[in-house]
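Worked example 2:
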Amino acid sequence: MNELNRKLAQHKIWLETAGKAGSQFNADELDMKKCSQEDFKYLTASFLADCDFSLMTLSGALLDHSELYSCKMIESTLDNVSFEKVDARFLDFRGALIKETTFHDADLDEIDFSGAVFENTTFAGANLWNCNFTDAILTNVDFNETAFYDVVLNCVKINNPQNLDRMVNVSIIITQEGKNKRISGESAIDWIKKHC
């Protein structure tokens, strides 16, 4: 058993025993292509920094309650992935396909979603700080009680949004005539409805 498999096995025990045995999975600068799809079902409450998931297909992965820092998911396919209650900073989802995925109650700070395509995904209860959705396409995305704090929405397409009127603390950044403009509150929601 290699070191990665040993750590994953210890993390599974740690989860199953509520932390009484085994050890939490911590990974730094790991190429996640070394993990199997089955491994991704046991990453709840992990600590991942600078890990690379780029160009991967993640199906049914569970990353709930995890701490994620500077991880790359560039052009990955995420299908039925759970990021519920994650604390995530500086992640890169550029060009990713994100389907049937939840970011419920997540704290997302400076995440790059530019060019990503979202289908049937939820951000319900999530806090998004300085995230970038430039050129993203969002279809059937739930925004119930989602907070946007200076979220960039340049050239974004939002099709059939769910609970847009139930967003809280909304402020967005758009570019007009070469200058960034901040719009907040009801005006931001109205802008999204009109322009996206």
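DSSP finds two helices and 16 strands in the chain. The first strand starts at residue 26 and ends at 28.
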